[in-house]
Amino acid sequence: MTPAFEELTKRLRKLPGLGYRSAERIALHLLVEQPDALPALVDALEAAAARVRRCACCGNLADAERCEICADATRDPAVICAVEHVPDLVAFERSGSYRGSYHVLHGRLSPIRGVGPSDLNIATLLARIDAGGVREVILALSNDVEGEATCHFLSDQLASRGVQITRIGFGLPSGGGVLYADAVTLKSALDGRRTYQ
Ligand SMILES: [Zn+2]
User: Fold this and answer.
1) How far is the CA of 6 from the centre of ligand 1 (A)?
2) Distance from the CA of 58 to the center of ligand 1, in angstroms?
3) How far is the CA of 3 from the centre of ligand 1 (A)?
4) How far, in Å, CA of 161 to CA of 49, rounded?
5) Tens digit of pLDDT per residue, the chain (197 long)?
């Protein structure tokens, strides 16, 4: 194998879910089997790297300072649904059952993995609430130990700020959370949300 091929394989291996064999297979596919598709992929990577960023308000992916959801005047800014990751937000959007706004934490608290509050997108959530106009924060986090710990922390931070704190109802699969739930389950999880603590 050539040094450039090795370098590409090494980079691909750092992507989530790819082991050595998968990375090697993708590198071979790009360079040998489908080399015509490579320039378009390089262009897409460059364009995404140049344009895509975190929304300054909610942490969603955005092409501008604010994402399309935050910029949408038909969405209710008084209700914020806090999710762990962008794909959770996408799952809610796909279900079509939610018209409020979001806040993407980009993870959850985990002392074991060394993830503390300052590693998550929490300060901007508190700033949004302190800016006023928020009535309810819906905690749509996993129902496992780390999700629970994150809910407790957020609820402690939010309690003195005068917003209603709710948590989505779980018919959601344990450990799978929002991401793997279908539209009907997500809707009933939202409808069945309860006051937290
Ligand atoms: Zn946003």
Assistant:
1) 38
2) 4
3) 41
4) 37
5) 899 999 999 999 999 999 999 999 999 999 999 999 999 999 999 999 999 999 999 999 999 999 999 999 999 999 999 999 999 999 999 999 899 999 999 999 999 999 999 999 999 999 999 999 999 999 999 888 899 999 999 999 998 998 999 999 876 655 557 777 788 888 888 888 989 87
